[in-house]
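ingest -> fold -> write
write: protein_1
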Amino acid sequence: MKFKPVSGKEDQAGGVIWRAKDADNYYIAAPTRSKTTSAFTHTIKGTRTEKKRVQMKVASNEWHTLRVEFQGSHFKVALDGKAALEWDDETFKDAGKVGVWTKADSVTLFDDFTYGSK
């Protein structure tokens, strides 16, 4: 998918959620403009827990691409065509919903969201 962080005083974030069971249980890959790092997290019963963090620059008012690949318990994330990080986790093993994600006062545009097998 493509995302463009436009504004936000507290944060400028946008990302992908996957294997979402409901509003309180899912994985997130979310590059953040207000920090120079981005994280993989999972949310269980509404509590977000960081699993991995990586240096990833995200410029405001510019389009970026974010790709998440997941198969079994293995996940890969690429930002702007470059591998960002890989991670294994078995918290959510079953299929779930996918979608876009943002937080706080972030104003983020999304485009070209696709989902499917390779």
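write: protein_2
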Amino acid sequence: MMEKHATKRKPRSQPDLIALAMHCGDSSGKGLIFRPEPPGDQGRLDMPIVEVNVEVESFELEILFDGLGGGALITDEVQVVLEEAESKYDVVCPSDLKLKLLGSCRPVDETDQFGSIVVCHHLEKMGLVAIRIIDRAQKALLKIEPFSEIRFKFSDKAKIALRLGWEAIAKHGRFPLPPRGSDRLNKLREKPCGMMHFVSASDKDAGYYYTMGIALSPEVQALGDMDFSYGLDGELIVPGQAVAPIPPMLAISTRLFAVSIPTSSNISEDIQAIPYSSFAHPEILDIAPARGYLFRPELRSGENRVKDVQEQIRKQLEQYENFVTRTTLQEREFLPDVGAAIDISNLEYKKVIPFVQSVLKGFDNSDRAITALFLFLDTQKGDAAATEETFIMTPRVEKICKAIDIAKEVGLKYVAICDQHEDVWLPNLLEYITASELTYVADYSDERGVIVCDGRPVDPVYTASTSAQRIQSVYTTLSVDILKMGMWLCLDALAARRVWQELQRNPHIPERMVLMPIGIVEPFSAFVDNRDRSRTPRPILDPFEKIKFMIEEANVLGAPSLLVDTRHKSKWVLLGSVDKDLPPHVREAIGAIPLIGLKTFMECERLARKKGILLGQAGSIEADQIFCIMSEATLDAAIEGKNPATAIWTAETERVLRRADGSTLKGDLQAQRRAAIMPYLSVFNRAYESHAKLNGWLEYLQTNEELRGSLLEKRELLETLQNKYLDIGSKLGETPADDSPEVLKAYKKAWEEFRAVFCDYHAQIKKHFKPVRDQVSEVWATLK
């Protein structure tokens, strides 16, 4: 008999944040250091060095001992963590602490039927110790001057506690803090806070750089509170795929340094709309629209064809009556009132009317009122001629129009169409015809009193249950406050409502986090507006009309928020010169097309504000646009005694430093979106954004134009000084060893000049932010 060898237990993987904290103070030079140097500096500049000492509290150690005594981590798990700390990080656990940790370990009480639940609670409490330690480190930044090199020093006891806390989080597989969702947003907006800003900051395990930048912002330092109007957009940008849900460990590590900041994660739009036939189903085709599959009756040939079809329709109508009996009107709202169908797809045109009339002889008016003609569209040469915006009569439209004429002739109200090729990205009738064709068909059918409907409707229950699985995964693992979920690009208006209603049946999900429906605003693919059930659905292509539609629908759904975005971000940008009231977006020079201007942007803001909806606007908004729109929105909302309804979502602002000529932003967009986060920009941009809010409030109050003008002048000066040291820096060598002494000296001098003005600018914003905000709050109180 072979001897069995026990597999040696390994410590669980940890993110860079934990590894760097463990390295603090050792000889590797890999400690947790925040050095917001400009791009290409490579350590040349002499930044002020600030050390942050981080210790563990005695009560936190007691939590660890208590958790180990409750069976959260077994002796082997604690032992391998302590061994890894010594071998990998040169962290030797003090002997008294080691003895107490190992001595505290107890097995789970097997006699307690709820023992596993007790262990889960202990794991969460131990995980919270790690979060408290990281949170203390972050809060120390609230008193540090910007553009300093910050070096964290965790004591050996703090490192051991942090590492054991992470081990508990990783073992439990979920973040210990629950989402706060709407509660967080409502509390945030009890006072003036200005426009919210979410940055995609989770890539490459470095989202904590972004949160450090927030802690160093003038507004956060002025208020002494991290729970402010910034958020992390938890989507991972990877090669070959624009966006994907962020991997759990990566997200949890980012959350460790974002415990007080609203966060968001992504559910891809294609997951939201799953047509019936994209999952296994019986071969027998069922006409009942609520169950669907391929919404097509079987057409037999032979002498008894009319009789066979009549028999089939009776079965369909009986199934439909049963369906109506077991469902509510609300549950059927997304479907046309069709209970049976007559397939005319393969009949010669001249034979269709006599055949249909023969079939209908056996049915009364009430049966005919819910019977449709069914038309299956084969692909024909010439069908590709019509585009989304340009209509050309195609063979498939001719065929649809003939079916409409027949329906009118025989007195039927509905024509159901579909084809063989499913496209999960396209909703309703747009799966079969383009937006321009649908507009023509809608006009044609409406004139004749006929409604064209989808012959292959989606199953909202299945779609919602599949979405709920992904939502539940994000909810339990990542603990996000806002969860984006694709909606109207894949679903028509009424089907989206039904999916939303199904999702609300999972009460703890919408209760604990904000579900944020998302729709694509580029005029590349249309929404389907089928809200008026008395006419054929119509497409919506115009970007503003799409946003208006989404705000109206979010209001109907009771959704507290929504996100509008572009999908093909190298082709479309949200804001630019389209309305001649904004300077051209920098990417317009390389062919990008802007969707809306400033006036339209503000109209969207007012519509959302009126409905009380958080409106996320995304789509390659660049750093140079942010100041203008944040200031304008803050001012416009303040006039009504409110905070802006709009939040901006950006992905590139922390990754690419914009030069005055815009040259740095004209490269490959996806490469730039995948670039590493720049600590420099996470500090620099936050100061500009704090200034933008302050500028909007000062313009609203009209009491201190001198301060407003002074800050605007300093902002312009900073742009000049930044370009000056960047220009000199471009003449430096490939490495510091290759530098010309004269160029290096000039570079350092230019930087010091920039840094001195920036620190003065930062201090001035910080000094006035809270007093001005409080003034605004007082004025709002009088308005109310």
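write: annotation protein_2
Residues 1-6, 236-245, 266-295 have pLDDT under 50 and may be disordered.
The chain has 25 helices and 20 strands.
pipeline exit 0
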